[in-house]
Specification:
about 750 residues, mainly beta
Length: about 750
């Protein structure tokens, strides 16, 4: 019966089977059974001395009745059914300067029967099976067990403080380790591909060293291991097998390779807790037929496999933090995680089966890849059941979200690959949908689509004439049942789509599996520059949907003129005290940085008078007002210029005021466009041309020459200017039998 010994130290001693450290030593071999000091016991008739390498052959039993010093001791290959032994009587000592080797290649049993003490300066190596029935073994080197070593209940293994001390279990067949009666273990190394089983506890009272499990080896724990100051190292390919509810060993330091494995088995429920000190598990296998219950949050640098036995996530969080690709295999249709967190930027977790999450999925970093046949299933119906998603952390594959009838947003952070360019978020705005239990969603490239045929359809809605559909992605949303009532809106991420322009894209919809002829602009979009109409929003938006299908992003030309700023009016008037009020109102602003009010005394030469901050982007009416307390004598001309964030600007019409109230009277005429080119049309508004004898006269300001005169009988006339007008300021005068007015304009 092998009692378990746990401690791992790096030992510099080299294990040699036939090479001796003393160049002057000779080999002394046993001739038969007998006393150590009896010459007839040995070949050559001489008992061993201090420098001798002693060999005891098969089926020889030697009794040491005095203290002896030798170089090394070998109990050689023991024949099947035979037993070779050395018995050290009480009060006697056998001092071995170098190695003690037991039963190399033997099928029998080698026995070290100790009532006295054996002190081994080198290594104790057991190749087959054997016993140590001992009062005390002082081990200064390494105890390397390649077979099974039985420590009897009176035995004690002690490591000398001057030596490293190491127990190595390195057999080719399964071994068992049992420690009793306060034996103190040195470092323990498991190097057995068939496995080593621990049957008794190792605690800080009998385990003072480190534990190492070598690659390809398995250490099966049926008892507790605890070392406050020791370290626990597992090489890649090593396995720690925790049987029948055995707790994870506690150590001061864990050096577990991500390629090592911790395996939990047992016929009763096994509780699994987090590693102390914030350390992370390597590969983990939950294979307990009695079930697994998490009693702490666990972090993983390796793979997680959950067999189809009862699994209770118990409101705990599983976090993947490995630096490479990890896998998650959750077997059984009823098993689920409670919380799952991905915190592994730039890396991925791959599913081997469907993954059910009953509470929350947190996508902090890394991609969760489902594969074609598997699905991430979120059974929590709250909209916030998926958090922290981004272009660096999303689901590459299939997602099912369970829903309730509410007004919450449901994020579908999906992609069609593992790079940030593959990320296409969809957000469903739930407006009390009824009849839908869950939505299955995925991303696909554009298929079943002929661009020429689509353009020939001349598909359009209120403000866009569609020419094509973005090829990078379509969003496929499939409900378990179509809604019976309620509506929803959809926001689709556009950051990875090419060729889009402000106000010239929107969501289109077609039946699942449809072609280019089935696209339609169902639902409602916002007005020009509204939510989801500009690239800066990062998404396209429609609302008012009542059924689910495929969604794509249509691209086209705007059917309305898109100006950086839409001006309702720009005007100026003088108060009785001589102060001028300058007013203007915008109804749309796009990237508007600021306005500049220009001022002139001749209507030709303007200079910047005042700057007013714009409102960036707006679709609301915004009223601006400025005051000029020192206008020019006579006429003062004002002109408005708007500048975008990128420096692009446009200039609006000129208005004027006169410090003579009589001259000012009758103004209010508005001209468009202003400035204007000669030979172009000029629209006049603000004067009642239905009055008798209404006419328009135009004068060139600099020369005073009349360049145009015409009778008008239209309430809002448009006149055609002469083609030969020279650039400069012109005054347009409107007259009738009952009123008159004037305004100015610029010819470019």
């Amino acid at each position: 019966m092998l009692r378990k010994i746990y401690s791992v130290l790096i030992v510099t001693t080299v294990l040699l089977c036939s090479t001796h450290y003393n160049a002057y030593s000779i080999v002394v071999e046993s001739a038969g059974s007998g006393n150590w000091n009896d010459g007839s016991t040995w070949v050559g008739g001489i008992a061993p001395t201090i420098d001798d390498d002693v060999v005891i052959h098969s089926n020889h039993q030697i009794v040491l009745n005095s203290t002896a010093y030798i170089e090394s001791l070998t109990i050689s290959e023991v024949a099947p059914g035979d037993s070779s032994s050395i018995e050290i009587l009480s009060g006697r000592q056998l001092i071995i300067a170098n190695d003690l080797q037991l039963n190399e290649g033997g099928a029998g049993v080698a026995v070290l029967q100790l009532l006295g003490t054996v002190e081994i300066g080198g290594d104790l190596i057991l190749y087959g099976d054997g016993d140590i029935n001992t009062a005390k073994v002082n081990l200064l080197g390494t105890l390397d067990l390649k077979g099974e070593l039985n420590y009897y209940t009176i035995g004690q293994l002690v490591t000398n403080s001057a030596g490293p001390g190491r127990l190595i279990l390195s057999g080719n067949s399964s071994q068992t380790l049992t420690i009793e009666n306060g034996s103190v273990m040195p470092d323990l190394e498991i190097n057995n591909s068939s496995g080593v089983t621990l049957q008794t506890n190792l605690t800080s009272t009998n385990f003072v060293g480190d534990l190492l499990i070598k690659s390809g080896s398995s250490f099966n724990l049926n008892a507790t291991v605890f070392s406050v100051f020791g370290s626990f190292t597992m090489e890649s390919g090593a396995t720690l097998h925790l049987m029948n509810g055995t707790a994870v060993p506690e150590f001061g330091f864990y050096g577990w390779s991500a390629g090592s494995t911790v395996r939990f088995t047992g016929s009763s429920q096994v509780d699994v807790e987090n590693l102390k000190g914030g350390y992370s598990y390597p590969n983990v296998i939950f294979e307990a037929t009695g079930g697994i219950r998490l009693v702490g949050n666990i972090r993983l640098r390796g793979n997680l496999t959950v067999f189809d036995y009862p699994f209770n996530a118990n409101s705990q969080t599983v976090t993947f933090v490995g630096s490479g690709t990890q896998s998650l295999n959750l077997m059984g249709s009823s098993n689920s995680l409670y919380n799952l967190t991905l915190d592994k930027p730039g890396q991925s977790v791959e599913l081997s089966n469907d993954l059910r999450i009953s509470n929350q999925l947190s996508l902090v970093g890394g991609v969760l890849t489902t594969g074609i046949a598997n699905t991430v299933i979120i059974t929590n119906t709250n909209g916030n059941a998926i958090t922290s998603h981004s272009s660096s952390s999303f689901i590459n594959g299939n997602l099912r979200r369970h829903m309730a009838s509410n007004s919450q947003d449901y994020a579908f952070p999906l992609g069609a690959g593992t790079t940030s360019q593959s990320y296409f978020l969809g957000v469903l705005e739930n407006n009390f949908l009824e009849g839908v239990n869950y939505i299955d969603a995925r991303i696909s490239g554009l298929v079943n689509h002929n661009s020429s045929n689509f353009e020939a359809l001349e598909l359009s809605d209120d403000s866009i004439s569609y020419q094509t559909v973005a090829t990078e992605a379509i969003w496929i949303f499939t409900p378990d049942m179509q809604p019976t009532s309620g509506t929803y809106g959809m926001k689709l991420n556009i950051n990875n789509l090419s060729g889009l322009q402000d106000n010239r894209f929107a969501i289109l919809k077609r039946p699942e599996g449809g072609n280019e002829a089935n696209w339609s602009p169902d639902g409602n979009i916002e007005p020009v520059n509204g939510t989801g109409r500009r690239l800066s929003d990062g998404f396209a938006y429609r609302h008012g949907y009542t059924s689910f299908s495929e969604f794509g992003i249509g691209k086209g030309e705007s059917e309305v003129e898109l100006l950086p700023v839409t001006l309702d009016f720009f005007q100026a008037f003088m108060k009785d005290d001589g102060e001028v009020i300058i007013d203007w109102v915008t109804v749309v602003e796009i990237n508007c940085d600021h306005f500049t009010i220009e001022r002139s005394n001749d209507g030709i030469n303007f200079y910047d008078w005042r700057t007013v901050n714009g409102n960036g982007n707006s679709t609301s009416r915004i009223h601006y007002r400025e005051f000029d307390s020192n206008p020019y004598n006579g006429i003062t001309f004002y002109r408005l210029r708007q500048t975008d964030f990128d420096g692009t600007n446009e200039t609006f019409n000129i208005v004027s005021v006169h410090d003579n109230p009589v001259a000012q009277k009758g103004q209010g005429i508005s001209l468009y466009p202003n400035p204007v080119n000669g030979g172009n049309s000029l629209k006049i508004s603000g004067f009642d041309f239905s009055l008798p004898n209404s006419k328009v006269i135009i004068f060139h300001v600099s020369s005073g020459q009349m360049v145009y005169e015409s009778r008008i009988d239209d309430e809002s006339p448009v006149i055609l200017l002469p083609e030969n007008l020279v650039p400069g300021m012109y005054i347009l005068r409107s007259e009738s039998d009952f009123s008159n007015g004037h305004s100015t304009f610029i010819v470019k």
